[in-house]
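Annotated sample (chain length 218).
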Amino acid sequence: MRGARRRLAEHAVDLREARLAAGLRQRDVARALGWSRARVGRAERGQVRGTAVVDLAAHASVLGLVLTSRLIPGPGRLRDAGQLRYLNAYREVVAGAGWRFQLEARVGASGDPRAIDLLLVRGRIRVAHEFVTRLRDVQAQVRPMLRKAEDARVDALVLVLADTRTNREAVAQAGGSLRELFPLGSRAVLAAIRAGRAPAADGLLFVRALPPRLAGRA
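Output written by the structure step:
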């Protein structure tokens, strides 16, 4: 929420500066939008809570600006109980190998909102893990993970999938394209992690969820 408020404030400054540069009054902009002058003023001060994207885009458009937006994975996402059980199950599996666990690890500088689900750190070794409860669209789900891992300059990326029939079928359907991206299988990945070293390449790992009563202790 803090990041959203900051971006709204930045947009407000841009809107005001664009209006002044165009020599327009607030009532001119209001007339073009069909708004009240007071509403335009509030928008320029960033005081409009719950601003709709379509309204912001319209406001920008009459001033010769174009609103661009995209959704990228960031920190602090909501996780359901199932996701937490898979994450905790994996931590139980690799515990005791000297790794330090970082949840929602930032990818880069403070201005980068992206985060890695789980980062294992041991000395200078850094292994990123992305958890997927259900694999639906390989391209849409995996590509952003690969970009995050590359930008974070980790030693390896492990795609951790819930060990379900649906996910195994999705992996089979993806065929060689997914295996090219993640050449190592579960056995090789776990052998490396349990030995306290980075996998030799990016890998794919299936994990079974902990029972709820055990997940609550993790």
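Annotation: The first strand starts at residue 100 and ends at 106.
Annotation: Residues 2-21 form the longest helix (20 residues).
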